[in-house]
What we know:
disordered N terminus, mainly alpha
Amino acid sequence: MDMSSATSRTEARSDIVSDADRMASVSTKKGWGRYLWSFWVLLGPGFLAALADNDAGGVISYTATGVQFGIGLFVPLVLCLAVLTFTVQEMSMRLGAVTQEGFSRLAHQRYGKFWGIYHVTTLAFENLLTLITEFIGMTAGLSMLGIPMWLADLLCLVFVVLFVLFTGYFTKERIALVIGALNIVFLVVAAMTHPSLEALGRAFTTWNVPASLRGDVTWFVIATVGNAIAPWMIFFQGSGVIDKGVSSRELRLGRIDTAFGCLVQVVIAAGIIICGASLYGHIHNVNSLGPSDIISGLQHTVGRIGAVLFGIGLFDAGFLASITVSLSSSWSIAELFGWSKSLNDKVREAPKFYAIYVGSLTVAALAILIPHMPLNLISIITQVIGGVLMTPLLIFLVLMTSDPALMGSYRTKLWGRIWGWLMVTLLIGLTLATLVQTLLHV
């Protein structure tokens, strides 16, 4: 075993022991304080992976859905997707916790060099395109404050890179959680739009789409379901639980962390759709809708303050996703090649790991400054690559978590395997539908 990896895991485990000691120290106290502290310590990779799924691109997509269709079908649909996200992310969490190996390394060991390289290269490329959309969202958010685009882009890069300078996994994880908590601004803006409770109730009972828009609904359904799970989430959570020090003994806590993240993610996504629904009938040409169009439109419905809050939320969504997406690339590549890869390591102790993190962010930040960058085409390509990557990724995930030789008593049980294969079938169908719809839209 790589000694640096062993040291990192020991340090990660000491973090958990320290947290457990702190939880025990307040266990004799009464009141909500001890419960809040215990819950705060519990939150980690599962919550971050799910919440970061509401990235800048996702925010724009959800908002565009609300602009196009109102509340209708999509608010109840997005809430139902929590089950899909939890199914996939629980398998990723359990695989990492039980095996203490990252997904890319396991794929390489069990299915050959080709699949190990395939997952890492396609993930890194898709993540780079995803990061470009995150910087677009972040710079648009800061532009609300009157900051020039080039300066906003530079500030975004500096903010995300500074994240790695903090010491220890636990500290970095807590900072990411605080960043993620700011997503609540979307719910604030949604409340400021004064949505009709009657319309919301009708959406859950009828799941209705206006007749004039039913021809366009397929693409938006595909995009909404596709937003529920992304390839980087599987790599991030699987590696994150290892770095945090989670083992098979903490699976119950890992499931709670994952379930809570999946629940919060869809509630916020529903709130974003409600924000967009306030612009229903007021904005046309939704397919080319960008961050500046959304923010400008919201100024007319919720005022300057609401638009600024939405811009802050957009920046925050891109900020958190930039951290998690970049880390998924760094972890997966470092795992495959056996490099030091822990957030407990300082930069000088894991230079290649952090070089991938900073390098991918720098390339993405520079890319959005290129004149006439085809941003809509990048979004389409990212979605297609994500679908191509997800198909074998999910198949391997179900196979490995069902393997008794690998998972022992923690393997997926019969009904879990049936449910897992149903989810794989659904997402493969989604991938094929995405390819067809992409060809029709190009």
